[in-house]
Amino acid sequence: MITKIKDRLSQYFAKKAIEKHGTEIVSPLAAIQKPRSEWKVAFLTTAGIHLKEEKKFNVKAGDWSVRFIPSSSQHADLTVSHTHYNTKNAQEDVNTVFPIEALQELSRKGAIGTLAPTFIGMMGYIPRTRKLLKESVPIILKQLKEEEVDVLLLSPG
To answer: Mean pLDDT for each 10-residue chunk of the chain (157 residues)?
Structure first.
């Protein structure tokens, strides 16, 4: 009962936010009808994770950009440039906020289906929410739809 209420509230607030700030249609949350071993899983974090070769997030400006990270990436390929939380542990092991190796292992063992080709890194400090909703969210939704993602896991910074 509580779960249904939470789901309905989430749907309501997501729909209201999109109506007010965006143009993307929000589908009602629904239980996945296929077994977990067939899921295509993606991951999104707002912990400021990105590929080392990319420029750092502009934290002071409230960077709303989206960084696409190949799901085949290794810990050594990634870094964190967020400054609004203590990133010491994340710098030592990115898996503390972006469990890419655990997801790769779950997929290899068949506990989940495949990983989407692309994971997503963002900043959690985005005071200009209009930019987030009008620019970042449509980019993310387009990518998820193109890759036919069944499950998107989320992790804050």
So the answer is: 66 65 61 90 94 92 94 93 79 87 95 96 88 92 95 89
